[in-house]
Write a structure and sequence with these properties.
The chain is an alpha/beta fold and about 150 residues long. It contains 7 helices and 4 strands. Helix content is about 50%, strand content about 15%. Strands 1-2 form a two-stranded parallel ribbon. Helix 2 links the parallel strand 3 and strand 4. It starts with a strand and ends in a 5-residue tail after the last helix.
């Protein structure tokens, strides 16, 4: 069973999410909070806003993922399960914002090595050195360590 703490500034939204998540047999809503300061646990952001700065700030502060409220209920429930298991959750448009931010940053390898590698090899090399599973984890690592905005 996965315990969920609902955090939203709108009571109506919290009530709706409670109803949707109650339909999932492995999810239990254990509480609610009106804002993030009230919640002291693993956080999966579910919001109306997909502004670049807000996405990056949430990830930099340690959010397990970032979803917009227009995601289907099944995707939200799946994201909760993935966050619980330690995975990073971002739909493709949000991940694209993070990756775009990463590409604007300085390279992590010396110039001589950069000339010999393709973009895919660069990313694979970074992932291997940082022991990260995928590009999403790599993007989140960069945001959390101040290498991307």
């Amino acid at each position: 069973m996965i315990s969920v703490l609902l955090v939203d500034d709108q009571r109506l939204m919290r009530n709706g999410m409670r109803t949707l998540l109650s339909l999932e047999p492995d999810l239990t809503v254990v509480g609610e909070a009106g804002d993030g300061r009230e919640a002291l646990m693993k956080v999966l952001i579910l919001t109306t806003f997909d502004d670049d700065a807000l996405v990056l700030e949430a990830l930099r502060e340690g959010a397990a993922g970032y979803l917009t409220k227009d995601e289907p209920a099944e995707e939200i429930a799946s994201a909760v399960r993935k966050a619980q298991s330690g995975r990073v959750i971002m739909p493709p448009p949000i991940a694209a914002k993070v990756v775009a931010s990463l590409t604007r940053q300085a390279p992590l390898l010396p110039p001589a090595e950069l000339a010999e590698l393709t973009e895919r090899e660069h990313v694979s090399s970074i992932m291997e050195k940082l022991r990260l599973r995928d590009r999403t984890q790599t993007a989140l690592w960069a945001v959390r360590h101040g290498l991307a905005e």
